[in-house]
Amino acid sequence: MGEMSMNKAIHGAFRRDLGRFVAALETFPAGDRKRAAGLGAAWENFDDQLVHHHEGEHEIAWPALEAVGVSRELLVQMDAEHETMAAALAGARKAMERLTSTAAAEDAAAALVAMAELRRVTVQHLEHEEAEIEPIYQEKQGSPEIKAMGRKFAQVSPARGGRFFAWATDGADREELAAITGTVPPPVLKVITGVFGRGYRKNIAPVWR
Predict the structure, then answer these.
(1) Does 194 score more than 70 pLDDT?
(2) What does the alpha-carbon distance between residue 181 and residue 95 come to, in Å, rounded to a whole number?
(3) CA 70/CA 149 separation, integer angstroms
(4) Sign of the torsion angle spanned by Cα atoms 116, 121, 126, 128
(5) Distance CA 63, CA 162 (A)
(6) Is the pLDDT of residue 1 over 80?
(7) What single-letter DSSP state applies at residue 143?
(8) Which residue stretches of 57-143 are H helix?
(9) Cβ pair 65, 134 in contact under 8 A
(10) Cys bridge to 5: 23, 137, 146, 196, which one at CB 3.0-4.6 A?
(11) How confident is the model at residue 65, as a pLDDT?
(12) Are 149 and 64 in contact (CB under 8 A)?
């Protein structure tokens, strides 16, 4: 697993996108429907990735972590933070849907407020999770429970996997890329993102360029 877990590398992708959205909404050109549509497509991907990640944590990661010694009380706290994030996510989702529909300046301003709140609660949770759980991932990375957890997370369709890795590596720093390629060999990563990540690279990545 190296110096960073895959989980922390994924957190990096969430942080990047949240920063990108805030910056884009701060400078949104009123009436630009093409820009609004691009941000809408990027939002749909982000929304899906965040929901999928946290549902997977609850269903797959938490049981594995409890099995290697993480307290039930901490995991309950993490789920409570997920609920707070879900509420902020719902607000941002509604605001982004409105902006995508109208491209109006007032809706961009409302989306910025909602996105800033989503970033605040999400980063707060990510920092807490990393402080408490990242050391456990590092210490227990060779345990049967954590290895089994990784195999369960990998049980996704090629389409989802390709889109996920194209997104997770878009703008990743060296340490994050090392964590990802430490889990998925670079030749495999190149193939899966090349074949199944084309939609992300064509339709979403250019939004941030």
Answers:
(1) yes
(2) 35
(3) 14
(4) positive
(5) 26
(6) no
(7) S
(8) 62-67, 72-102, 105-139
(9) no
(10) 137
(11) 96
(12) yes
| Cα 208 off chain centre by | 16
Cα–Cα distance, 48 to 68 (Å, whole number):
29
* Average model confidence (pLDDT) across the chain: 95
Cβ atoms < 10 Å from Cβ of 90: 13
* Tokens linked to 89: 């996510």
Residue 164: per-residue pLDDT:
96
Residue 193 has a CB neighbour count (10 Å cut-off) of 23
Q: Is the separation of the CB atoms in 117 and 91 below 8 Å? A: yes
Q: Structure tokens of 180?
A: 């990802």
**Whole-number Å distance between alpha carbons of 161 and 114:** 29
186: CB partners within 8 A, 6+ apart: none
Amino acid letter for position 90: A
